[in-house]
Amino acid sequence: MKQKSGIVCDLGIRVLEDNEIVSEKIVRAHSFTNNFAYMLARSMDMVGNTSYRNTANAAIPACVSPRCINAPYGPQWIAECPAGMNTIGAIGETARGIVIGTSATAFSVSQYNMQGLIAHGTGSGQMSYGSMLTPADPTFATPNITINISRNISNNSGASIIVREIGLKGYPAYVQASCTYNGTYSVACAEILYLRDVITDTAIGIGQVLNVTYILKTVV
Amino acid sequence: MEPRVEEVSGVAPNIGAAYEITVYGTDGKVRQVIKDDAKCYVQNFLRMFNYFFKNSLYYSMHITSYYTTLVNSNFKNLAGSIISSAGYFNWNATGSFIAVAGAGDITAGVVVGSGSTVVTNDDYKLATIITHGSGSGQLFYDEITFPPIITVGNTVTIPVKRVIQNTSSGAVTIQEIGLYVRGQSTIMILRDILSPQVVLNPGELVAIVYNQIING
Questions:
Q1: Residue A50: Cβ within 10 Å count
Q2: What's the sign of the alpha-carbon dihedral A37, A43, A49, A55?
Q3: What is the pLDDT of residue A39?
Q4: Which of A144, A105, A134, A101 is nearest to A214 (CA)?
């Protein structure tokens, strides 16, 4: 069957040991949660939707009219509806970026969190998250355009760990501003799950590295 | 080493777009309907998602926490010039990818044109936009509306709609449609060539819905 035009998302799953590939597969992601759609809608309609929910299943406040903030060079108007997901997690950070888990619970678009997140660390059942790896710009090879984002996650614990779910979390800001001329402002962020995929059991042995890559590309 | 496994299957993209065009005659009755998948994923569309992954806030030099991470997304504006994120998401911009537009505003939302140049992914504007007005070759653009988001199973559809009327005295032919969004400046993220084209006679109106479709 022919692939319809659009953007497809593939999920690359690689296990490495001593920088050698132990196993590798690419599967079509089936992972876009409601949050991804509502993030897109929010950036366009500047309204927001109560279905846009954080990992505690609480609604992200709807957008409101732009307000002013006390910027260094005088008041500036800002919107309470900034776009984006902010997924570039740092080393050890599981509030944003590609994350992994142990749960095989089936995917649903209404899910708002990983079902069995593997914590960062070297203790039992934990893995060490590297920083997110992203190119500075999409790759353009006419007619296709590709974006890759990836992360290496190492098993430095004392036992093998089975990975059954992969997700992408973000920590976007939504602005809470209360401002008059030279007033004050505050910024709040929310931990949000945008993508989640259930994969076949993938064992990560002691000392092995799991490299996960989400690949967005156009099909025309 | 285990063999590389390819399991790519299915026909629906993870992120797609489609359009619905309904032409109403002067008697108010529907005389033409066009529904098709969009085939028009220009570079700005992918750059938008690249931006989404990396950012969550407009350019803001005074907020130093990590959620203000900003990466140059190299959008092309309507002049074809590369604009930096700082240029597009100026820190006093009121939003990032705004499709909101009032009547007569063709700097955001659904726009139409008379050009038939084949779509390529480096398109950055409609080939020949039809301007707002009642003069020869012009059309009257109503405000952008956002019909309710539709969720069916694991598919979420985000519609953006505009009604456009021919208040001029001659027929106007629409051969291309696009979706413009606005930050500090305007960029085009979708463009499609219509087949068949739409001939809008005096007094007629057309409702155009661009659907962005997220398949879970």
A1: 11
A2: positive
A3: 86
A4: A134
Chain B CB contacts of A137 below 8 Å = 47, 50, 72-74
ipTM, interface predicted TM-score of the complex: 0.83
User: Using CA atoms, how far apart are residues B127 and B138, in angstroms rounded to an integer?
Assistant: 15
User: Chain B within 8 Å of A62 (Cβ-Cβ)?
Assistant: no
Residues of A in contact with B94 (CB under 8 A): 46, 66, 77-79
Question: Which is more confidently placed, B213 or A61?
Answer: B213
Share of chain B above pLDDT 70, in %: 80
Where are chain B's structural domains? Answer: 15-59+70-215
Global pTM reads: 0.86
* B92 burial level (CB within 10 Å; 0-12, 13-18, 19+): middle
Q: pLDDT for A71-127, tens place per residue?
A: 555 555 555 566 678 788 899 999 999 999 999 999 988 999 999 999 999 999 999
State both tokens at B210.
């661009």
Cα A76 to Cα B57: distance, rounded to the nearest angstrom: 14
Q: B84 — phi, psi (to 5°)? A: -75, 165
CA distance A116 to A102: 5
